[in-house]
Amino acid sequence: MLLDGRNAIVYGAAGQVGTALATAFAREGARVHLVGRTGKTLGEVADRVRADGGLAETAVLDALDEAAVDEHADAVAASWGSVDISVNVIGIEDAQGTPLAEMSLEDFERPIRIATRSTFLTTRAAARHMIRQRSGVILTFGGDGGGEPIRDYAIGGLQVALNAVDFLRRQLAAELGAYGVRVLALHTGGITEGLPEDFAAREAITDMIVGKTMLKRAATFADVGNVAVFAASDLARSMTATSLNITAGAVTN
């Protein structure tokens, strides 16, 4: 197993991406520490992991709560010996469909504040243990990695938030590399299977995402889980400060 014996903390583990990551990590032998704000949904993911023979622990906390994030990471390290993988995929409550010129400051700021604060707090909590261990992998998620604005759809502060997280990821890699800690991004350009059936802009967004790809399909949640396992494993031990392109050819690099 590629991740045998490792401890992986997944923030936002009950969401679609979080579930894909958690189940993939567990499948490859990691003990997954499922973090979120709702115990019931976390328990459902944990039950799924355990039913498949995996190891799962749950913790109810808010990834925006500095003290709670630090205390949980410390508890994982104290109880299980290490923090080996950390990934934050909490929802960032973005407001889409309204042009920036018509958007309220609150709606614009919200995704930026949530994304940068939660990413900073969760990565800092993990990094303190990874520095001591001289090893570890921090993963970020979201966007396409191309750094281009969205031309055909009003996306609010989301793109700004994702690019802020991407720069934070590169700075973390520069500072943590000397300690053997790797920091990588997972970029999909959007996962269409996660769009609600009753979402008014579902067809337009699907066409926009798929239309940019070379493979004429979007990445799936399973794709994300598989690539994340590779990124967190020793197979990728020489990779840091870069992104893994899961955009099906929407972005070339």
From TrEMBL:
Gene3D superfamilies registered for this protein in UniProt: NAD(P)-binding Rossmann-like Domain
Full protein name: 3-oxoacyl-ACP reductase
CDD domains named in the record: SDR_c
Protein family per UniProt: Belongs to the short-chain dehydrogenases/reductases (SDR) family.
InterPro entries: NAD(P)-bd_dom_sf, SDR_DHRS6-like, SDR_fam
Organism: Acrocarpospora pleiomorpha
PANTHER family the UniProt entry points to: DIHYDROANTICAPSIN 7-DEHYDROGENASE (PTHR43477:SF1)
Keyword Oxidoreductase attributed: yes
One GO MF term: oxidoreductase activity
Keywords linked to the UniProt accession: Oxidoreductase
Pfam family, any one: adh_short_C2
